[in-house]
């Protein structure tokens, strides 16, 4: 049985109200999202800013209520939990944020920050709390003597370690990592990612790893779900998705990852076209206004997220007929003349990682 099962989750926010309080427009932040996560595994939720990743996280933690859909955690229906059961659940699922400085109380020492959850959930008798704090600090690679310091006395990476230790204090089964390394120096990122992986192996933690950056996700995810405008457009085991992305949006996100070899050539898929407006969401496939492979059907009919035998699921009418990702990503060419024409309008050859370019142009779309 999966640790977490999310089915048909929907959350629309009111974006505009009339003078009399009537809802005039809705943001479809999350619109029919389903996925599952095994204990001890990592699911990465990937997509541009505004695609609904954080809203999914908040729904999974039951910090906000969905309009419809279900969330099952360890076999329990989260939406049916009474206050006591919800309190117990708060221990089992934790979250760490992009900016640890904002999430750590500046007036508390690291020791006090780590003692707080122990006391709140009555996890450790008062006499043993100091030892438990030292243990937590060691677990995240910090010296116990640092317990006396305040957040501003730590580096960004150290602060993220304290935020991780605070999450671990309650011995959770699931941690939502919301862009946990985006605010950190590039040189520190891999240290924090390694720490998260080590802790997962040691403690059997499951992670939902929220990120806009597929390069980061590559180092940590077992499964990836790519989101666009409140919906999952592709989901697969990480290896399968990175080796062979199928949805044009995933291909474009992947093509923006710098190549490991500086001289390697690749075609960067540039997505242009009309960017969907919050008040005028695209009909049919929500990606069609930016898709290089759009056909008439995409404008009228929303594609279902369909899985093949291996569990690789894609929401695209043209999955079966598009060229393999190899034909796009490592600049191997090989398009049929008709597809080459389409791709040419949206792609350009680049050389080397430094000029690999950004795969998506324009500001991120909003959802309605
Ligand atoms: N409380 C709210 N009220 C109204 N709209 C909201 C609210 N929370 C989120 N939204 C909107 O819902 C959409 C999805 O937001 P969300 O924060 O989940 O996206 P995201 O992918 O996590 O983006 P980011 O990476 O920028 O946090 C956005 O259009 C956002 O403006």
From TrEMBL:
The protein's name in its UniProt record: Peptide/nickel transport system ATP-binding protein
GO cellular component terms, A-Z: plasma membrane
SMART domains given in the database record: AAA (SM00382)
Gene3D superfamilies: P-loop containing nucleotide triphosphate hydrolases
Primary role: Involved in beta-(1-->2)glucan export. Transmembrane domains (TMD) form a pore in the inner membrane and the ATP-binding domain (NBD) is responsible for energy generation.
An annotated Gene Ontology molecular function: ATP hydrolysis activity
InterPro entries in UniProt: AAA+_ATPase, ABC_transp_ATP-bind, ABC_transporter-like_ATP-bd, ABC_transporter-like_CS, Oligopep_ABC_C, P-loop_NTPase
Membrane topology of this protein: Peripheral membrane protein
Keywords of this entry: ATP-binding, Nucleotide-binding, Transport
Similarity comment: family membership: Belongs to the ABC transporter superfamily.
GO biological process: peptide transport; transmembrane transport
Subcellular location: Cell inner membrane
Record keyword ATP-binding present: yes
Keyword Plastid among UniProt keywords: no
Domain ABC transporter: 4-254
């Amino acid at each position: 049985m999966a640790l977490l099962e999310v089915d048909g989750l929907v959350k629309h926010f009111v974006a505009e109200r009339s003078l009399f309080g009537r809802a005039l427009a809705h943001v479809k932040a999350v619109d029919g999202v389903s996925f599952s996560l095994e204990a001890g595994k990592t699911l990465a939720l990937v997509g541009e800013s505004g695609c609904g990743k954080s809203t999914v996280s908040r729904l999974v933690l039951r910090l906000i209520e969905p309009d419809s859909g279900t969330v099952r955690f360890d076999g329990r229906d989260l939406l049916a939990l009474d206050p006591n059961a919800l309190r117990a659940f708060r221990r089992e699922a934790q979250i760490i944020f992009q900016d640890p400085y904002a999430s750590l109380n500046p007036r508390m020492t690291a020791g006090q920050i780590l003692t707080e959850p122990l006391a709140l959930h009555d996890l450790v008798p008062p006499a043993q709390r100091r030892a438990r704090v030292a243990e937590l600090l060691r677990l995240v690679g910090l010296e116990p003597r640092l317990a006396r310091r305040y957040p501003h006395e730590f580096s960004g990476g150290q602060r993220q370690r304290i935020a991780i230790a605070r999450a671990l204090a309650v011995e959770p089964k699931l941690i939502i990592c919301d862009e946990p390394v985006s605010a950190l120096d590039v040189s520190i990122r891999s240290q924090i990612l390694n720490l998260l992986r080590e802790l997962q192996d040691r403690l059997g933690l499951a992670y939902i790893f929220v990120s806009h950056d597929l390069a980061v996700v590559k180092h940590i995810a077992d499964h990836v779900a790519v989101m666009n405008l409140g919906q999952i457009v592709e989901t697969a085991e990480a290896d399968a998705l990175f080796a062979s992305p199928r949805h044009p949006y995933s291909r474009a996100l992947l093509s923006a990852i710098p190549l490991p070899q500086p001289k390697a050539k690749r075609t960067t898929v540039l997505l242009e076209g009309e960017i969907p407006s919050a008040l005028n969401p695209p009909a049919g496939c929500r990606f069609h206004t930016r898709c290089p492979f759009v056909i008439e059907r995409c404008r009228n009919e929303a594609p279902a997220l369909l899985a093949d035998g291996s569990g690789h699921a894609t929401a695209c009418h043209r999955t079966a007929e598009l060229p393999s990702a190899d034909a796009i990503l490592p600049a191997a060419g090989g398009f049929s003349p008709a597809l080459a024409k389409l791709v040419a309008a949206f792609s350009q050859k680049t050389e080397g990682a430094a000029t690999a370019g950004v795969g998506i142009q324009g500001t991120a779309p909003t959802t309605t």
